Amino acid sequence: MIALLLLSTLFGCASNTGIVPMGRDTYMIAKQQSTGFPGLGSMKGEIITEAVQFCESKGKEFQITNTIETQPPYVLGNYPRSEIQFMCLKDGDRELQRPRLQPVPNTIIQVK
Length: 112
Description:
Elements: H1 2-11, E1 15-16, E2 20-23, E3 26-32, H2 43-57, E4 61-69, E5 81-89
Antiparallel strand pairs: 1-3, 2-3, 3-5, 4-5
C-alpha cells in the first residue's frame, strides 16, 4: 500500500492545457509531466494525436506550425514539457503543406 502511494506521488499526473485558440484557425496545446522521471517519450505524440482529432472533428486538416520542448536536466520544476502550435485548414488551403520545422534558438547574439 505504501509502495503504491509512493509510486503515484512520484509519477503523478501530467498537466494538459487542452486546445487553446491563438487566432484564426490557429491553436496550441501543451502537456507537462509532474516529475522528471517519465521524460518526453510519447508525450509529444499524445498532444499531436489530440490536435489531429480536434481538426478532424471540424472537418479540417491538421497543419503543425511550431514545436517547443523543455531541455534537460529535468529538476527543480523544469519537468518534461511539450507544446505544439498548429492550424486546422480546409483541404486545398494554400497554407496546407509539408511542415518545415526549425528549432528555435535558445541564445540570440546581438551585435551593436
